[in-house]
Amino acid sequence: MRRAAVAIAAGAMAVSLAACGSAKESGDGNDSSDSAAKKKGDDITVGLLLPENQTARYEKFDKPMIEKKVKELTNNKGKVVYNNAKQDASLQNQQVETMITNKVDVLIIDAVDYKAIAGSVKKAHDAGIKVVAFDRLAEGPIDAYTSFDNVTVGKTQGEALLKALGDKAKDSQIVMMNGSSTDPNAAQFKEGAHSVLDGKVKIGREYDTKEWKPENANANMDAAISALGKDKIDGVYSANDGMAGGSITALKRAGITNIPVTGQDAELAGVQRIVTGEQYMSVFKSYPKEAETAAEMAVALAKGESLDSIANDKVDSTTTKGVPAVIVPVVSLTKDNIKETVIKDGFYTIDEICTDKYKAACDKIGLK
């Protein structure tokens, strides 16, 4: 088994090889000899806690996919109890408390704040409830983790931006619109992007965008334009599509067009901006694979089963060592591979993308 460890340092995680710790050291829910695990049948309850509802993926993809997979794995006997924290870390902690009180069998948590959730994870652990960290590596004694290679996401975005700038990159100035400082993934995206961009392009302004909100990215971009001048911005590194949209609105308001802007999540609005050329790229991530993996882990843990057949990696957080993990690969999405990515995987249909407003642009790139 390949065992890669992901350690969080100064808010970011660095991948390194690591030996497996003992079950006692790691809180590893993958220990088949775990005497605390009670064998259960298909009649299980999975608590699902997602961080916010502004990013389309959580309600459109993650929730229904996890619900569907849990039913498939439990002969329609398992159920999912769902709550969304709406970007409120305190609310999410309360939601965990409620799940514990209601005695769910396992929790899937995508943390609003990966540090603030640690105490609640510990309470779940003490109550005998296993925890799957979903998409973000929460602190505390988690039992499993699934996400994407987040440093690679940042590298993919940075490489795409450099490709778009071409030979002019060395003389170009960009603005970096990073994600929220409370999200460990944002630190990894930033790390990956800097590893590609540093020394290749001038970074005029850089922001950690509060709560990933498009309106905050919009305000940050207004500040960057005021500081740098509207003729001095040649590209934008945006960590996701929502912030790309907020940034592009500010750029257009200032009369700045035809500069490359990156994104992530392949949101419908982001794909449509890619079709028109307002946004250069997004990072396409297989949410079905990530969601199904989280469901598989949760069901196995709820039943007291080993994760050996599911997880082929190990990750370390600052609080927990040797957590069984599945890291899902990512793809750079541009106007050239829309059919091979979001359409092929059933995220959207051509009709959903190519509404009347976008039909001419779709025809131009052969999206029919």
Structure commentary:
The protein is an alpha/beta fold and 368 residues long. It is built from 13 helices and 14 strands. Strands 4-3-5-6-7-13-12 form a seven-stranded mixed beta sheet, with helices on both faces. The protein has a three-stranded parallel beta sheet with strand order 9-8-10, sandwiched between helices. A two-stranded antiparallel ribbon has the order 1-2. α4 (118-126) links the parallel β5 (106-109) and β6. The longest helix is centred in the first third of the chain and has 18 residues, at 56-73. The radius of gyration is 21 Å and the shape is globular.
Would you spell out the secondary-structure blueprint of this structure?
Blueprint: E1 4-9, E2 12-17, H1 23-26, E3 45-50, H2 56-73, E4 79-84, H3 89-101, E5 106-109, H4 118-126, E6 130-134, E7 144-148, H5 150-165, E8 173-178, H6 184-197, E9 202-208, H7 214-228, E10 235-238, H8 241-253, H9 268-276, E11 282-285, H10 287-302, E12 313-315, E13 323-328, E14 330-333, H11 339-343, H12 350-353, H13 359-364
Parallel strand pairs: 3-4, 3-5, 5-6, 6-7, 7-13, 8-9, 8-10
Antiparallel strand pairs: 1-2, 11-14, 12-13
Helix pairs in contact: 2-10, 3-4, 5-6, 7-8
